[in-house]
Fold:
Amino acid sequence: MKMTPNQFVRLLFVFLLSLSACWPADASGSPKIVVIDPGHGGAADAGSDSAKTKSTNNNATSATLHIKEKDLALTLSKLIAERIESSEAGAQGKIKAVLTRHDDSNIDFARRADVAAQANASCYVAIHFNSDNSQRVSGPRAVIQQRSRNPNYEADERFGRALAKTIERVSKTFRPQTPAASVHDDHELHNGWGSYLFHQLNLNPKTKLIPSCHLEVEFLDNRDLEHLFFVDRKDEIFSAWASAISNELIRQMLTGE
Ligand SMILES: [Zn+2]
Structure:
């Protein structure tokens, strides 16, 4: 059958249209990789201060029931990863979640950063629960690397603030007096050095410029919210936090905003 030039152009157009319908969001075809890092773990510290790799096995503990941050961080991180993987974008291969640890073990910050480099991470979120000497402070916080050491400060600030805000919205539905989300830098840690995690991520060109933050989801040691958030309504609130955080990560990774 002979085709006129017009027919050929029309056929070519239909062919290109059908290709675009199944083209992945990322022109390279590779998914966005979200690294989720459950803070702490295990029974002993991993790494060292001298190498700036030390990850403590646990930090915050609840006021009366002695619930450990490392366990809650793992539970919430796994839920977030599951939500990302089972999302529409996950099923379409546009986004993937990678956990730095899957069980109650501690790995140092060089190894955590290496998981991100090996996975070609697009962003990095460390999940933590906070503590304060007064046992009265509450509210979600994002912690980012201080400006003087951070080549990606503005992007980290946007990334962390949007994630902390999404936690605030969920927490307020369970506890209306939850304070507004805030962003803090890490200058008070390790005598001004800041978080060893950010230091290790900066050492590798593959992870130096990806958006990264610690998410301090809530204060675990606060007496007023211990039962509400971490016992009585734990399943509901962890599920809601995981959905909100995963949706925000998917939104940011797919829109680039
Ligand atoms: Zn922590």
Notes: The longest strand covers residues 123-130. The beta strands are 32-38, 95-99, 123-130, 141-144, 182-185, 212-219.
